[in-house]
Amino acid sequence: MEHYRENSISTAAIVVMGSIILGRFTGFLRETVLSWKVGLSWVQDAYVAAFTVPDLVFVLLVGGTISAALVPFLSGKVEKGEEKDGWLAASSFINVISLIMAVICAFGIIFADRIIPAVAPGFAGSSPQTMELAVKLSRILFPSVFFIMMAGICNGVLNSYKKFTAAALGPSIYNLGCTLSIYLFADTDPQSMTKASVFVTLSAFGYFLIQLMFSARKFRYYRPVLNLADEGFRKLFGQAVPSLLNSATVQLNTVISTAFVSLSAAEGSLAAFRNANTLWQMPHGIFAVGIGTAVLPTLSGKYATGGFKEYRTLLMKSLTSVLFFAIPSAAGFLILREQLVRAVFKWGGRFTEENVPFVAEILAFFCIAMITHSTVTIMNRAFYAAQDTRTPLVAGIISVILNLALGYVFCMYTGLGAAGMALSYSLVSFVNSVLLLLLMGKRLKGINGGELMNFIFKAALSAVIMGAVLLGIRETLPYPSGKALQLAYLALEIVAGCVVYLIMMLILRSQEAIYLVNNIRQRLKM
Q1: With 50 as the cut, is the pLDDT of residue 242 above it?
Q2: Which helix (H) or strand (E) segment is 54 a member of?
Q3: Which of 229, 255, 506, 514 is deepest in the core (most CB within 10 A)?
């Protein structure tokens, strides 16, 4: 039975990661088309600033309440056979969150001219036209947040029932809609960007309708009620508020980064920062978010039924599985940063060769975060599964204070510019990950730290050797000039790096590598 459960989690993780790969690919396509159409220009700076606040609200209510509160609560009720009772509380919770989001979106539209100057203060003095366009675009994009949140609720319900495929495929549909909107309408002309933003919002509405269609059957116990006195609702809401505040700390870090980057004198700094951020989020989204999403309902069920030993074992396996991919990804991105930027964003148009080093420098400082933020993602979900949303909140508050201090120092007293905020983010993420590990160890009276450090040593050593091989390829084979050959060259390096890393981990007898190889063999026989 335990073997069956492990395979079920692995299958779920593969499904989610596969869907996330598709989602990230379509996300890259969206960002590539955006850079191709408008370049690292003041128009893209305005678009990035305009999207910051709606995105902040979305992550607060979707990441902070659905992932952290609704999914563990509802999946726990389903595991214990109390599905109908769980939906009584979940219905009121969903209705309250939807009303709150509607009010926030209305306020965002009305007060955009006061919100954007707080998010991007550098535009007020240096680029009034950028500020004006950002305010206009923000008002257009705010309604999209409501539709994406409603789709997020549908996805949260699907995840609670361990129906991961439909939930994970939805973002790809949304990204394709956005990509088409940007391709057809976006340009350096502000009016064209306005039209593109309208169709981005319409894409969000289509995303919601599709996810509602997939999840409609799971809403059979949903009721349009607001029973605020219900005990289950109060428990659920009590878990949601700290997790919402924790998500607020994450998004405050984004706002802090946006504000400091906007003070940079270089035009296109916000756009370059967004491009680099999009790149490093690729492996993080595939592995950390993928595995975390797949394992959360099972972790919640184990904790809810008192299986604390299984909970601890599954947590450690999830953490080492994520780091198995995150550590070599960080090393590879650091060495191949310019080639990756060139491959993803430079397709002619207005993104030029001169833009490549600008984005690549920022990406280099984000590489640490691939490892540390992946750890934070898994540990946050571990606390959420234990229905403890307060501990991640404490760690999040510390991260905001630290990010504010480091960001001020790096951007005001060094020449790092936008790269300084990437470095600040990575250092803050490192502190956050260590803090969460220590607090979880105290909670569980140990999480087998020796096993974790042994694994990290093996993975780090293998990643160093992989990096040396990649540098050797660069010295041996000249870098080509044509786009097709550049892509083939990059593919060769990635394949070679993956093979070397996997061989080294097998030599070092890493259980994660052995399990991966055996899993591949089993699936090839099917």
Answers
A1: yes
A2: helix 42-58
A3: 255
Reduced to 3 states, what is the DSSP secondary structure of residue 235?
helix
| Structure letter (DSSP) for residue 219 | G
Amino acid identity of residue 279, one-letter, is L
pLDDT tens-digit readout, 438-455: 888 888 776 777 888 899
Q: What predicted TM-score, i.e. pTM, was given to this entire model?
A: 0.71
Give the CA radius of gyration of the chain: 23
- The residues, ordered by sequence, that sit 6+ positions from 291 with a Cβ below 8 Å of its Cβ are 13, 16, 17, 318, 321, 322, 378
130 in Cβ contact with 45 (< 8 Å)? yes
Distance CA 70, CA 480 (A): 51
What are 101-110's pLDDT values in tens digits?
889 889 889 9
Long-range contacts of 411-420 (CB under 8 A, 24+ apart): 411/260, 411/261, 411/263, 411/264, 416/365, 417/261, 417/264, 417/266, 417/269, 418/261, 418/264, 418/266, 418/269, 418/270, 418/272, 418/273, 418/362, 419/361, 419/362, 419/364, 419/365, 420/260, 420/365
Give dist(CA 31, CA 279) in Å, integer: 10
pLDDT value, residue 412: 78
Spatial separation of the C-alpha atoms in residues 24 and 344, rounded to whole Å: 12
Burial class (CB in 10 A: 0-12, 13-18, 19+), 450: exposed
Cα 135 to chain centroid, rounded: 25
Torsion of CA 396, 398, 401, 407, to 10 degrees: -80
> 387 near 72, Cβ under 8 Å?
yes
